[in-house]
Design brief:
4 helices; 144 residues; globular; single chain; 2 strands; mainly alpha
Length: 144
């Protein structure tokens, strides 16, 4: 385990972790996929960089739940596309992605921040709205 002051990020992966040497280079680290399809675009090679895979995973999750804001924040789409690029070599590092996300966040106008969010999630190029898929709460709050 690296010293806490040296950790760049931590990812909880619920059982699919790999142990790498503490002094290893995260740009050149290679591991075997832990499950089929773990790293899209790399089927021709049995090894992949898990850190590039982490960026892809974050991009996939953000794409599903954050991309619904793309009509209000246009530069969000190209940012998310870069995280899930088929070619891992052109994906940003996690640090670069965080910097770009902060840049997007800091450039938001009051009008963008005041915009009502009507989308629930994005899938296959389509936004499912709150009207399409409403959340139903029990009438009895003690039912949980």
């Amino acid at each position: 385990m690296r010293e806490p002051s040296e950790v760049r990020y931590a990812l909880y992966d619920f059982g699919s972790s790999s142990i790498l040497p503490p002094d290893g280079d995260i740009e050149t680290a290679l591991i075997m996929p832990l499950y089929p399809g773990e790293e899209p675009g790399k089927q021709q090679h049995p090894l992949f960089n898990p850190f590039h895979g982490d960026v892809n995973s974050v991009g996939s999750v953000m794409g599903r739940y954050v991309r619904v804001l793309e009509s209000v924040i246009p530069n969000l789409g190209p940012f998310l596309d870069s995280l899930i690029s088929e070619d891992p070599a052109v994906r940003p590092s996690m640090s670069q992605a965080l910097l770009e996300f902060r840049k997007i966040r800091s450039s938001l106008t009051q009008a963008q921040l005041s915009n009502e969010v009507t989308g629930r999630y994005w899938h296959n190029g389509k936004i499912t709205t709150k009207v399409d898929r409403p959340v139903h709460y029990p009438s009895d709050p003690d039912a949980f």
